[in-house]
Amino acid sequence: MNRKMLLGNVAVYSITHALIDATCAGVLFAMVARAQADPQTLSNLIVVYNVLAFSTQPLFGLLVDRFDTPVYAAVLGGVLVAASPLLLPVPFLAVLITGIGNALFHVGGGVISLHLASGKAALPGIYVAPGALGLMVGTLIGKSGHFSAWPFMLLLSAAVVLILVIPRPQAAAPRSLPGDLKWFETVLLLLLVSVAIRSLVGMSLVLPWKSDPTLLFILTGAVVLGKALGGILGDKFGWATVAVSGLAVSLPLLTFFAHIPTLAITGVFLFNLSMPITLICLAEMLPGKGGFAFGLTTLALIIGALPTFTPLRLLTGHPGFIFAAILVSVAALSVGLRLYAGHYSDRMSGSGIPH
Length: 355
Description:
Order of helices and strands: HHHHHHHHHHHHHHHH
Mean pLDDT: 92
Radius of gyration: 19 Å
Number of domains: 2
Helix content: over 70%
CATH superfamily of the largest domain: MFS general substrate transporter like domains
């Protein structure tokens, strides 16, 4: 694939990802701002949206893999999300459409990013990263009470057209999984445990200074840069080195210094470095099933986040719990990547990443 086509696809799908998440968040929090239902019902709808958006991705991923339709999944997801603001007067229907549309786009775009990646972690990280920025912008607009459907609909419609007309990347021929891969299920489980804990910690962190708009923007930038640079740095210096060390160094910063913005933001950046690396490892372990691999990571994310929607959130926000959770995540990721490296050693060192 030539450089122009690669960069064009990355740009279109990454920007559309931000627009998708911004629209979904805007719709959800516009319902809250307009008090279209009692607070408990609105809270339940947000939980339903998250479960739909994240837990259905493995199923959609299997379908995309089976019929090789990532572009059409992304387009259908974009169309559904673009139409969702029109359904605001019917909250449940709006939540249903946004959740399904979000899942379809993420899987479709995720598979395309893996097609572009050629075994590297950089491009999947760049694709996923802008979602955090979209969520922040959409949430702020939705909560402000000034959410307007048309700008979101027009921008997403333009993005969908670009996805349809841009030259499409061709998937590489699926390679054979080595027959001597030991502890296959163990490696998958350890990587997914690390993903789930990352979600749990991210949802549980108590950062009292987040009410400052400037600091919130910088924090979101740290999430975006962490995910985007995690793959780039991992490809250069080694996946295990970057992912495990970043997670380990983030542990004291997020546990003991969450009240200090500079240190906590640094911790959040380091904490997110592992995201594209766990994704590409799972995709490499499931050749030809990129959609399912992507969906497994989002299923792990929602499983990890679920306790924060229950009374358990009083426990999960405690510094002692944060410390223990990140420590378990470091151990799971370290062992998982070490076992993975034993069978894909050429893909784990900075000098041996395939081109």
